Predict the structure.
Amino acid sequence: MNPSFLAFNLGWGEIVLILVVVLLLFGAKKLPELARGLGQGIKEFKKATKDVQDDLQRAMEEEPPRDPPRRVAEKPQPTESTAGGPTPAA
């Protein structure tokens, strides 16, 4: 099993170093608050992704709307004045 954080070729040593730097930057009191905010953000993102997938699934399952049959318009018959030929004398 390949965890997603290892996809960037990070070893355990690099991960521990990153966590230590984060701890030094933000302090022990701020870390739970940051983790909670990160967790809520991930939760909202997953919910939005699921909603979009559900909408797409519903749209694919629906029957496409049926258009009423179209009436074919007849082409107007050319008259002698529009036919380009000589006009009859009266």
Notes: The chain has a mean pLDDT of 80. Residues 16 and 81 are 91 Å apart (CA to CA). The longest helix spans residues 31-61.
